[in-house]
């Protein structure tokens, strides 16, 4: 961060480039990224990627399935680093001021395996799986946090043409049982820490015969071998050893074969299993490889999102196809200040120094809030210089000549933003964000402070993520880019909601995705499959997303609404819950928010998880006394303060009066995937929240 000695250098950096910039930098012409295309199916407004007239199906000739692609990549990048894992040096329990205990870990450097070494492990595991007694006609499930063995297990199953069922490690018992029984899984691969959960539900599982667990230093697996004796139990290393001693010829799949049944942690009801073919995965892989510039063996990717989520599986598929090194981490150990990192030791990003990173908006929002909190605490000249630097770089990124010249950018980067960049290792050159809409403020913060372009991804499990990706040289906010080269995007008019492709100035409608990334449908749910998947007269498969979008003149998509989120109030006004939530999330006091609208009332209300730092800071300045954060959230003065702040943010976001919550309930505890209130991608589960806080919602309408 800057000090007094840097003021002169900063002044030169500010003043000298202004005249140069004014003279030589003109207004940029917007690049065409997507162009209209004639397609079949329901009438609408369709766009293809501007760079490629024909849809991409494979990354290179012969890579028709993930098993083929993986084997070819391992031969191509034989001696390159591939998978890296940090060794745990130690751990301890720390007691917080409120008496709660938290585990802190001390992790060492990354230990690497080459592509050749990983291929050997995959082949051994594939053989061991068969020798263990798994029937290749039955499904294997992976129920684990993201780690190197997860990917090795996945590729091992692919090598024997075995379909893998993926299940979030945070999934609740009922959803876990439903997923395993519905797909008749016979072999379950899991973290050793999941053995306790399996022990408690074993009587309700109808098809499981084999358990393979990943060994962990701090879990005593043998304690469960006796209680799980009805099943064949083996450690991951035991299966690899079995396969090494008893090699089995591979049985490679076809492109139309089902690679994965991916269970979503959807926002309503029991999870649905999406059937993803090998062709879907390699098509998205081929397309995304064209989005990330100059990607190759010099890059390092930090993997920490759930591999059971389509976003992470797609990302790691791209990395292995491009020969990138993948280092594994976790959201709890990501940075030096992450909750599980022992004080004084280093987080994953600091040690790995990744060049490529994927993220969900909630994580980027936390990084932004953490930096701004530190700047606020430092105050004085540090705060002033940061604000000057940020404003001038913001003007440059948004297309103004002010502050765009290279010398000034270098000054700000070297003196002001260098320390911020070390939060994520200091070498990030491209980030891909997905899972939910990213706020413009957070995107700009990453552009400026981390110095990286962000490709916003839009997709669903049903399209294997491949629906839209913004490109590296597109610094606009609020948009998700054109379709990647593997798919088409189409808008279909939704008359009931008032969205039409004939709308001016921009065509609007329901977003429909067609192409090689569109999956085969829902497992054992033909009715739901037929409802949202359609095959046109040309044989093209389309998925109806339920999202409402509009196309910009350059062919980029913007998501503006969702059909299911629209509620009609008592006097006939429509409210888009998702739109309002996105606007309110920029309020400093809001950590998470769910807006609720009742057709029998004329106003909406909201459940707000309060930002602890912001609310406690306000309370201190306002002289509000309280015992704990829960008591503060219940104080009328706090509710009034947050409601007034929400009103200002809503007005700035041009929300209508009926869209602004009239009443709110402040909640002290965060919503986590473990609580079942948000998905693994941290999107809210509306029905579960409504059920959990039914009494609070009722009181808000009283």
UniProtKB/TrEMBL annotation:
The keyword Cell membrane does not apply. The keyword Transmembrane helix applies. CDD domains: LC_FACS_euk1. It comes from the Eukaryota. The chain crosses the membrane at residues 6-25. Keywords: Membrane, Transmembrane, Transmembrane helix. GO terms for cellular component: endoplasmic reticulum; membrane. One of its GO terms (molecular function) is long-chain fatty acid-CoA ligase activity. PROSITE patterns: AMP_BINDING (PS00455). Residues 103-523 form the AMP-dependent synthetase/ligase domain. This is AMP-dependent synthetase/ligase domain-containing protein. It comes from Lupinus angustifolius.
